[in-house]
Specification:
It contains 17 helices and 18 strands. The chain is an alpha+beta fold and about 500 residues long. β8 and β9 form a beta hairpin. It starts with 5 loop residues before the first helix and ends with a helix. Bound molecules: flavin-adenine dinucleotide (FAD). Flavin-adenine dinucleotide binds next to β3, α5, β10 and α12.
Amino acid sequence: MSDPSAATLVDGLRAILGTDGLLTDPQELRLYMYDGSIDRALPIAVALPRSAEQIERIVRLCAEEGVHVTPRGAGTGLSGGSIPLCGGIVLSTARMKSILGVDTENATATVQPGLVNLDLSRHLAPLGFHYVPDPSSQGACTIGGNVAENSGGPHTLTGGVTTNHLLALEVVLADGERVRLGSRAPDPPGPDLVGVFCGSEGTIGVVTEILCRIVRTSESVRTMLVAFDSCRAASEAVSAVISSGIIPTAMEMMDHPALGAIEAFSHAGYPVDAGAVLLLELEGLEDGIDRATQRVADICRANAAVEVRLAADDEEREALWKGRKKAFGAMGRIGPSYYVQDGVIPRTRLPEVLERVEAAALRAGLRVANVFHAGDGNLHPLILFDDHDPEQIKRAIAAGEEILRACVEVGGSITGEHGIGMEKRDYMALQFPQATLEAFRALRDACDPQRTLNPYKVLPSGLGCAEGGKRQKTLTQMQELAHQAQAAGEAY
Ligand SMILES: Cc1cc2nc3c(=O)[nH]c(=O)nc-3n(C[C@H](O)[C@H](O)[C@H](O)COP(=O)(O)OP(=O)(O)OC[C@H]3O[C@@H](n4cnc5c(N)ncnc54)[C@H](O)[C@@H]3O)c2cc1C
């Protein structure tokens, strides 16, 4: 295989995408170095396909030329999944954002991968339906990215995560072949290939079309803000509510440092003096919902709630949710940067693990704020640091590792919904025995022996991931290509 120069590759991609479908200007490429994590890497080009046919041709060309392809939705990922770690190209689905069909009788929708999550529910609202998985980033993140990360959100406590809402996928595999997985009918025979694909973080194929379930929007909804003096009291209330048999659709917790930042940003009336706040939501038939809401309020009061406030109308409800959903962005009020972890623990262990989170941050000499899906035991400690200070970056990473170790020790997991990407890659061995990791690698080898797609992600280095396939260029060669591309500037 001959090494293509950057110019040859770019010519081939332009022949597929036309002049406006490929970015090569170094200034524009810099915008694709990032996602929501703390790593950075520059691609040699960014492809902006408009169709699955174009994706087939791009992936085939790159596979033939030994050039890595990193799929990208909106780049809101929090584990470095869409960062082109070893150069290669970024394949962005930003121009594939159509809703191809809605079938309310069968409660399904067919969408392109670049569709922004919230745009689907907005489109469905007049029909009385919505799409359940609602990451807090839903105003920006794409459904393709959600599939790749198996994303959750505040309302997945009762509704389930993305994998529970997928029926079929169209994907382009690592050699450029386009296949359909799953079916319109539930439970097709054979292994659950849609399930295998969901959560694979762009490492075994590129999602080009999604057939998902949609659900009827509930007749009634009640949203409640409950304040406590401490995270411990709030955590105990979470367990008490769930063990009473009433499962709210959402149970979100924000601690004292988070509340100050959120209120300064959202002005939603969050009690900034509280030790912790729970945002609880109940959905169902009008008949009975007030009784259930009252019962939840009583349980919270019995567990030391100092304030229980029911949203009076849709406006107040939306303001409360806006505060929660924009909470990560609000952290800019209290720190220049944050490093977020996504460990999951049995919810009864919340008080103890939150104390360990605080201790880890203290040891690192950094502050921490917590905003998380308490009902699921899905923690999101936001470790605040200054990303211009390499020393602080190191300490933030060390505190993050300590927190993930604590999660695994109490029987939890290193990620609930943000994925492994490159950030958590080397922590996989904390959770999985070597034999399981080898099985993951065998699956990936079967799908992408050349490591064309999103290499160096998910599997710990040393497990074949970091080495790349034999036909792939080395990291140095890829960096050389990136330098060539940069040196050529506007001209190539
Ligand atoms: C403020 C904030 C709040 C968040 N809240 C939540 C939350 O509540 N729940 C949650 O689960 N996550 C949350 N996230 C994380 C993030 O938004 C999700 O992981 C989301 O699914 C990423 O979607 P994206 O389109 O931005 O994907 P990207 O970040 O662009 O990519 C993520 C991964 O998906 C792969 N990928 C993207 N598109 C495709 C495709 N078409 N085919 C194959 N692979 C693909 C990429 O290669 C990468 O590995 C939050 C992030 C932020 C910044």
